[in-house]
Design brief:
One of its GO terms (biological process) is double-strand break repair. Belongs to the SMC family. SbcC subfamily. InterPro entries: P-loop_NTPase, Rad50/SbcC_AAA. This is Nuclease SbcCD subunit C. By secondary structure, the chain is an alpha/beta fold. Among the domains are: 216 residues, Rossmann fold (3-Layer(aba) Sandwich); 97 residues, 3-Layer(aba) Sandwich (Rossmann fold), CATH 3.40.50.300; 173 residues; 174 residues. It is 68% helix and 9% strand. The protein contains 23 helices and 16 strands. The strands form four sheets. It has a six-stranded mixed sheet with strand order 9-13-14-3-15-16, with helices on both faces. Strands 2-1-4-5-8 form a five-stranded antiparallel sheet. The longest helix is centred in the middle third of the chain and has 126 residues. The radius of gyration is 63 Å and the shape is flat.
């Protein structure tokens, strides 16, 4: 990586536009940035870092304030850097987020962060030629080309001011944290955590298995009701228990069979006794039944006579009910005549039927004459209601006109308010695009935050595969080297067979052969060597491929980290929610533009509509008044006719109703008299039919027939009782005549109780034996099932215990315990190896700068109070031959050691990350603590750094350093901002 040109505007302390030509500065390979304290020397390095990664090193990145406070309002803030990486020249430009003055009005408006990448020369094959304009795309491309993230770049390319000695004097914890951050060894911590978590799970599972075994054995003890002797083998005891329970079950089965046979014999004897007892009982019951029926025979004959009389009386009862209905109808008709006569008020009810009919006709004629006046009376009511409606309508139209006048007065203010709201909606629509863009940007960042864990996992997998490929390649290379050595040995042995004493050697020409090579046991040919070479090349290709995959995964992970910066998913989610709320509010307000436009048009239309409506109301009021006056005259003229027609009644309709009601009452009386005469005739006919029916049924009279009446329930009871008597008699005689009871003596004594007692005793004994046998068999089966499960659990527990013991020991080793002799965790061991490489690289420079006196010594000894070691760093003083802590070095010596350590750390990090060749290096550190001789040594070391075309930039205000370097860039500060001047 070589820097060519840096441009910045309104950045840091630089209020204007400044340009740094690194090609001119680096012409001698070494240049100096100098100036007063606070002028902005380090700010130039911040500009380079910001252009590449969008952040600055050290504590300054926390402030995130990049714009110059003294820059003019029309001066933008941006940084542009042109550089060459991996043979491709590109230009990166970034604009930070800051507040700029509004172009119109007062106040500030936010300026969004921007980034762009342009290819000055051809881009890599797998990257687009048009470059990139998104912040995340620019960050991913830069990190991929450089092969390192921002923290590694700051440590390797920009050795930051004031941070050299921090790593030198850091304690074990701080040093481990920095090394882990630079070398990306967090995966080893995750490996140790995985071992600990896996051990915890396996321990829990082993405890559960042991508890399961104990529960099964306790269940066996519970079911068997026995326990092994102290010290007795559980497996042997379990086998003996199963054999004993089998014997007990077989003995119980034999006893059950014997008692079952005795029970069956006793139950057969009991069944025979019960059969005889049942026959004797049936004979006794049949004879007793016949005797009882003979005793009640007279009663049974009386039942039959009562049943016959009730049957003959049924036709008489039918005729009696008909005669009773005819009498009731005659009485009701006579009562109706009385009631109708009482209701005929004002009519002579003593007149005959024909006279009453003539009076009814005259009443109907009078009511018909009043029908026309009833119609006019109804019209009179309608017209009076119409007069009232017209009056109400006139009053309502007057009120409506007053309301419309009030609405018309308030319309101008409402129209003005709607116009103001419409302007606000249009303004919100103009701001909506900016708010939506912010939501889209935050949405992309939230998605990147969610993809970060998967990228981290992919990186870990790729690193694991890379280590395996390295081991495989190393093994193949060692195998190839071994074959080559064996082949050379074989070739030497072949030449040795052609040697004779006194004859010259075809290789060296000597005539003496003191120690000819002997033939090898397993010679190696060219084909073997070629095959091994092919395998080694294939392994190397896989190794390179795996490293490429690691780089790709690392770049993908770092791109996400670079895009996210210090933002966490929760913070981005909250910010996205806030931006979404703001956007939705603007969208909601902008969406009101169309409704408000329609509303304004509607209000303007309402003004015209109200004027038209008021004119229409005035016309309606005038028409209603004219109609009211005409209708009032008609109502007055009709009133006199209706007064003559109603007479003494309230209305014509009431008088007509009275006439019709009187006519209806007379008609009712006439109808009642006719019905009464018909009912009298039918009653006489039914009484004669009743007397005739009683004589035909054989009764002395109607009263005798009615006395023989029986209810349906009584007739059913008589029929059922007589049927039961016949059934009982037939059943008793059939039983005595049956073949089954022939020869059975009713006086026989059976002796059933003794047989029942014997059968009960035998049955209880058999049931007890069966229960005993079932219990023995169930206990045998339960124990057999539990024993099988217990033996299977024992078999599963053994391998699990062995596997856990192995895992437990391995986890202790990984975490620095157990058989780990160094008591170092896996993480500490890996970091110690990296620190050892750094110490070796730093020692090379420290010995030169200290004229061979000091060298770094890596120590893996344990720390104080039993702290685990592996990250100790001391210096070996050749003057005394003693190892000293780094904190005992003087100020100048500490600077030399810190600078050497920083350079060594940069070399190892660059080699570890597989990054590009770094042709530009910045050292931002004070040199004021060095004397002249030591400064010479340091400058000589820096001369070595620029070997091979590398450019080294120093940042210092020390005068002696300025005098030693020919190419200089001076930083000057003033009240309006800092400026740059090239000196040579």
């Amino acid at each position: 990586m070589r820097l060519h040109r840096l441009e910045l505007s309104g950045f840091g302390p630089y209020s204007g536009h400044e340009v740094v030509d690194f090609d001119a500065l680096g012409s001698d390979g070494l240049f100096l940035l100098h100036g007063d304290t606070g002028a902005g020397k380090t700010a130039l390095l911040d500009a380079v870092a910001f252009a590449l990664y969008g952040k600055v090193p050290g504590a300054r990145k926390e402030a995130k304030r990049f714009r110059c406070d003294t820059a003019a309002s029309d001066t933008p803030t941006w940084v542009s850097l042109e550089l060459t990486v991996q043979g491709h020249r590109l230009r990166v430009q970034r604009t930070p987020e800051y507040q700029r003055p509004k172009r119109s009005g007062s106040g500030y408006t936010p300026q969004k962060a921007k980034a762009s990448l342009i290819w000055v020369s051809g881009p890599p094959e797998d990257l687009p030629s048009e470059g990139a304009t998104r912040i995340d795309e620019v960050g991913r491309t830069v990190q991929r080309l450089l092969g390192m993230n921002a923290d590694q770049f700051f440590q390797v390319v920009m050795l930051p001011q004031g941070e050299f000695a921090q790593f030198l004097h850091a304690d074990t914890g701080d040093r481990a944290e920095l090394l882990e951050k630079l070398f990306g060894t967090q995966r080893f911590t995750r490996v140790a955590e995985w071992f600990s978590g896996h051990r915890k799970q396996r321990r829990q599972r082993l405890s559960e298995q042991r508890a399961h075994v104990d529960q099964l054995f306790a269940r066996v003890l519970q079911v068997a009701g026995a326990e092994p002797e102290d010290g007795e083998d559980r497996a042997s005891w379990l086998e003996d228990l199963e054999k004993r329970l089998t014997r007990e079950s077989e003995e119980a089965d034999a006893e059950q069979e014997r008692l079952r046979r005795e029970r069956d014999e006793a139950e057969r004897a009991l069944a025979a006794r019960r059969d005889l007892a049942d026959k004797v009982r049936r004979v006794r019951l049949s004879r007793a039944e016949l005797s009882e029926l003979d005793e009640h025979r007279a009663e049974h004959e009386a039942w039959r006579a009562e049943q016959d009389a009730a049957t003959r009386a049924m036709p008489v009862l039918t005729a009696h009910r008909a005669a009773r209905r005819a009498t009731e109808e005659h009485e009701r008709a006579a009562e109706e005549v009385t009631v109708a006569s009482a209701h005929c008020v004002g009519v002579d009810t003593e007149e005959g039927t024909d006279e009453l009919r003539a009076a009814s006709s005259h009443l109907h004629e009078q009511a018909g004459a009043l029908a026309q006046l009833v119609t006019e009376s109804e019209q009179q009511d309608d017209d009076r209601r119409r007069l009232s409606e017209l009056a109400d309508r006139i009053e309502a139209d007057r009120s409506s006109d007053a309301e419309l006048a009030e609405q018309q007065d308030g319309l101008p203010a409402r129209i003005e308010t709607t116009r103001r709201e419409l302007d606000e909606a249009k303004h919100a629509a103009a701001r909506l695009d900016a708010a939506s863009g912010r939501v889209d940007e935050l949405t992309a960042l939230v998605e990147d935050a969610r993809r970060l864990p998967a990228a981290r996992e992919e990186l870990t997998t790729a690193e694991t595969r890379a280590r395996e490929a390295v081991d495989e390649h190393q093994s193949a290379r060692e195998h190839l080297q071994n074959l080559r050595e064996r082949r050379l040995a074989g070739m030497a042995a072949e030449l040795a067979t052609t040697l004779d004493g006194g004859r010259p050697c075809p290789v060296c020409g000597s005539a003496e052969h003191p120690d000819p090579r002997r033939a090898v046991d397993e010679p190696v040919g060219a084909e073997d060597e070629e095959r091994a070479r092919a395998e080694e090349q294939a392994a190397q290709a896989r190794r390179e491929q795996s490293h490429t995959e690691v780089t790709r995964a690392q770049q993908a992970h770092d791109r996400l980290r670079e895009r996210l910066g210090e933002c966490a998913e929760s913070g981005l989610t909250a910010e996205l929610s806030e931006a979404t709320t703001q956007r939705d509010a603007l969208r909601e307000q902008a969406e009101r533009e169309r409704p408000l436009t329609d509303r304004l048009a509607e209000l303007e239309s309402d003004s015209e509509r109200l004027t038209t409506r008021r004119g229409e109301l005035a016309t309606r009021v005038a028409a209603a008044r004219s109609e009211h006056a005409n209708l009032a005259g008609t109502v007055e003229e009709r009133h006199s006719r209706l007064e003559r027609g109603r007479g003494e009644f309230d209305s014509v309709a009431r008088r007509r109703e009275h006439l019709l009601d009187t006519a209806a009452r007379v008609d009712r009386l006439v109808t009642a008299r006719i019905a009464r005469d018909d009912a009298r005739r039918r009653n006489d006919e039914q009484q004669a039919a009743l007397a005739e029916a009683a004589a035909e049924a054989g009764f002395d009279g109607v009263d005798a027939a009615l006395a023989a009446e029986r209810g349906e329930q009584r007739r059913a009871e008589l029929a059922e009782a007589l049927a039961e008597v016949e059934r009982r008699e037939a059943a008793a005689r059939a039983a005595l005549a049956s073949e089954e009871l022939a020869g059975v003596d009713a006086e026989t004594e059976v002796g059933l109780d003794e047989a029942a007692e014997a059968a009960t005793t035998a049955r209880e004994a058999a049931e007890q034996a069966a229960a005993t046998a079932r219990g023995a068999e169930q206990r045998r089966r339960d124990v057999a099932e539990l024993a099988e499960r217990l033996r299977r659990a024992w078999a599963e527990l053994g391998p699990e215990q062995s596997a856990f013991a192995e895992l437990d020991a391995l986890t202790d080793v990984v975490n620095g315990g157990g058989q780990n002799a160094r008591k170092m965790s896996l993480r500490s061991y890996v970091l110690a190896a990296r620190l050892e490489e750094v110490a070796a690289a730093a020692t090379h420079r420290l010995r030169r700068m200290s004229e061979g006196r000091y060298s770094f010594v890596h120590s893996d000894a344990a720390g104080p109070h039993g702290a685990r070691g592996g990250l100790g760093l001391d210096v070996l003083d050749d003057y005394s031959g003693q190892t000293r802590p780094t904190k005992t070095l003087s100020g100048g010596e500490s600077f030399l050691a810190s600078l050497s350590l920083a350079l060594g750390l940069a070399d190892v990090v660059a080699a570890e990350t597989g990054g590009v060749l770094l042709d530009t290096l910045f050292i931002d550190e004070g040199f004021g603590t060095l004397d002249a001789d030591t400064l010479d040594l340091v400058m000589n070391t820096l001369d070595d750094l620029r070997a091979g075309g590398r450019v080294v930039g120093l940042v210092s205000h020390v005068e002696e350093v300025r005098q030693r370097i020919g190419v200089r860039l001076r930083v000057s500060k003033s009240r309006t901002g800092s400026t740059l001047t090239l000196e040579s």
